[in-house]
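Records of this kind hold a single protein each, on a pair of labelled lines. With that in mind, the following record should read easily:
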Amino acid sequence: MNSSNQAGSADNIFTIDCKDVLLREYQISDIDAIYSITHQPEIVEYLPGWNVSREQRLDWLLNYETVENKQFLEAVSKDGGIENLRLRLGIISKETGEFIGWCCTGIKDELPPSNREIMFAISKDYTNKGYTTQAVQGIIKYLFEHTDIEQLNSIALLRNLPSNRVIRKCGFDFQTIIEIRQEQYNHYTISKSKWRY
């Protein structure tokens, strides 16, 4: 697995090469795929606030998500100090070039410091193929090798067995059960010093 972009691909789009998938910074052209995936019942069950209107999704993509991605990548190229910036990457099938999910990192206010989180989701059409695990491993490797991050968090609803499985497979250690908005989550962490890839 390698990160193909400090400058990167020919059109200068940041990507991380994972075995069967690529992680790629969000593009405006991803709008329909993101919108569609966020409305799948399997995604709505675990990410209920994400199924917003297409107009709202486009506003976020244009004015926040792609803008903050650029700021994040500039901070990495400068000194690796990413502070509270977020990075939102699409999971792209190498076989089809299709946008099939996302793997992102940002600050989760409900977690104790250091509260940088990895979160992910994948289309129901691509589950149980190892793609999400590859994506999460890819972003962990990138963050630990290119930023000043020393610890990462991930959370999953207790009933979300697939996400809990992915998190454990990627080397996160269970910490405790936390409550956020009357829902119970397993809280996991992984530290750079103990990271094994």
Observations:
- The two ends are 10 Å apart (CA to CA).
